[in-house]
Design a protein that fits this description.
heterodimer, A: 147 residues, alpha+beta, 41% helix, B: 393 residues, alpha/beta, seven-stranded mixed sheet, three-stranded antiparallel sheet, 43% helix
Chain lengths: 147, 393
């Protein structure tokens, strides 16, 4: 297993890492048992994600995909952010080893989860906008269970 | 050149100059097949027999009890399957092992389970050591074999081999030990310790990869694993890895000769690492504090994941290993760390440093300088660490 240069760059110099005390939405996905948790914070103004931060417990790919995902949604509208797929995150990183694909799924889900939280806080039911965020599908690498 | 600090000697070791120089003539000059009658074949044959004698001496065995194999895994497979398939004819269908064996043993006994054998997996307790009493209670009149590793590859804990051997002898059960991590590091005497079979592998003690041996006590009947020619007195076929065997013997002799002095040096380095790394908050040592290999350090840091830790250490030139799921290639962390009762999330944050004679106190100091800030950096970006800290408050 080896990582691309881009993965190594985002792992060694993660972008947008940290906390956001005044976040408009916070999403957390993953499970310590599985070895990765991603927490994502977003700031929203006029339907645009003006700032984003993340914290991740996990392997090199988990940190790199979190970092890349934040870069890809920063300054984008919520609609565009919701369209971001794990595939796009992977492609932006020049690929991931097969066993690490679930990290990119987790990154996609972390964004969706933060946006869902943003709507919930505004009193809007997020399920119609964000859709279901699947939970803990180990077999297919979609581990997304917060205990 | 960038500084490289190799502290993954339980994975493999460098080939020593001594071993390499002993090997080279058998690639270039004495390359003949040991089964041939002309002189370059016979020189090779003689070298193999000398190597057999050397290795036997290091283990307190007789030369005719040493059989060369291709690796430690082959030795384990042969010993376990060889005994099981022989004793099943006498109605013995039970094997006793431990929960934290190397996969070469675990997967072999699991294969036998699928054939219909029953297997008892002894608990290794929090300290990573089996209890001889529990072993004795597990033995039945159907027990064909007890196979317990000498020293664990991940946490380095050393098992009470002599006592295990005594119990097996008392109950007339054969005893095999996977001593791959122990040979060259611990004084072994197969007679004094009542060992019937023992696996070893050259690349763990500065010999080459691709060569190992199985000690088989005289009189122990084993079915063949590799069928073919009459090599190894018709018990293990295949043209001998002459250079490898010669290199293995040279490396083992050197390891055994220098054992006491080296052990002192390794223990000093190991203990300094353990003492100082345990000063990091929420860290824990895995495995017994003293009943462990002189060069083994295995520590878990809560709130971080092992692969990230290894990548950051690698960026500083430090080669180490971890029991995290990410490095095991599955979703579960190391079976060894789970066997000693570690929760998954703590097992994910484990680090193994395994030292050899080639390491220095200077390198230990460098690791101690570089490692704590890496743990801190990873924790600062970990939501799990955030929770641990919040809970503590």
């Amino acid at each position: 297993m080896s990582y691309s240069e881009k993965v190594m760059d985002h792992f060694a110099n993660p972008r947008n890492v940290g906390e956001m005390p005044d976040a408009d939405g916070i999403g957390e996905v993953g499970n310590p048992k599985c070895g990765d948790i991603m927490k994502m914070y977003i700031k929203v103004k006029d339907n645009v994600i003006t700032d984003v931060k993340f914290k991740t417990f996990g392997c090199g790919a988990a940190i790199a995909t979190s970092s890349m995902a934040t870069e890809l949604i920063k300054g984008k509208t919520i609609d565009d952010a919701l369209k971001l797929t794990n595939k796009a995150v992977m492609e932006a990183l020049d690929g991931l080893p097969p066993v690490k694909i679930h990290c990119s799924v987790l990154a996609e889900q972390a964004i969706k989860s933060a946006i869902a939280d943003y709507y919930t806080k505004k009193g809007i039911d997020p399920s119609l906008i964000v859709g279901e965020i699947p939970c803990c599908d180990h077999e297919h690498g979609n581990c997304n269970c917060v205990e | 050149m960038e500084r490289i600090i190799y502290v993954d000697n339980a994975a493999t070791t460098s080939v020593s100059k001594l071993a390499l120089n002993a090997m080279l003539p058998f690639y270039e000059t004495h390359f003949g097949n040991p089964s041939s009658i002309y002189s370059i074949g016979q020189t090779a044959k003689k070298a193999i027999e000398d190597a057999r004698e050397t290795i036997a001496n290091c283990l307190g065995a007789n030369a005719n009890e040493i059989f060369f194999t291709s690796c430690g895994s082959e030795s384990d497979n042969w010993a376990i399957k060889g005994v099981a398939h022989n004793l099943i004819k006498k109605g013995k269908n039970h094997i006793i092992t431990s929960k934290f064996e190397h996969h070469a043993v675990l997967h072999t006994v699991q294969a036998l389970e699928r054939e219909g054998f029953s297997v008892t997996y002894l608990d290794v307790h929090e300290d990573g050591i089996i209890r001889v009493k529990e072993l004795e209670q597990a033995i039945t009149d159907k027990t064909a074999l007890v196979t317990i590793m000498y020293a664990n590859n991940e946490i380095g804990t050393i098992q009470p081999i002599k006592e295990i051997g005594e119990v097996c002898r008392k109950h007339k059960v054969l005893f095999h030990t996977d001593a791959v991590q122990a040979v060259g590091n611990i004084k072994i005497d197969v007679n004094e310790q009542n060992i019937d079979m023992l696996s070893l592998s050259a690349h763990k003690f500065h010999g080459p990869k691709g060569v190992g041996a199985l000690y088989v006590r005289r009189g122990v009947a084993l079915e063949r694993l590799i069928e073919g020619g009459a090599q190894e007195r018709s018990r293990r076929a295949g043209t001998e890895n002459v250079a490898g065997i010669v290199g293995m013997a040279a490396a083992l002799k050197s390891a055994c000769d220098g054992m006491i002095k080296r052990e002192e040096k390794l223990i000093a380095m190991r203990d300094k690492l353990i003492e100082n790394l345990l000063k990091i908050d929420y860290s824990r040592l895995n495995g017994h504090r003293t009943k462990r290999l002189a060069g083994n350090v295995n520590i878990s840091f809560s709130g971080i994941e092992g692969e990230s830790l290894l990548l950051m250490l690698d960026a500083k030139g430090i080669c180490a290993s971890s029991g995290s799921a990410c490095t095991s290639g599955s979703l579960d962390p190391s079976h060894v760390l789970l066997a000693i009762g570690l929760p998954h999330e703590i097992a994910h944050g484990s680090l193994r440093l395994s030292l050899s004679d080639e390491n220095s106190m200077d390198e230990v100091d460098y690791i101690l300088e570089v490692l704590p800030p890496i743990v801190e950096k990873l924790r600062s970006m970990s939501p799990l660490w955030e929770k641990i800290v919040a809970k503590a408050r």
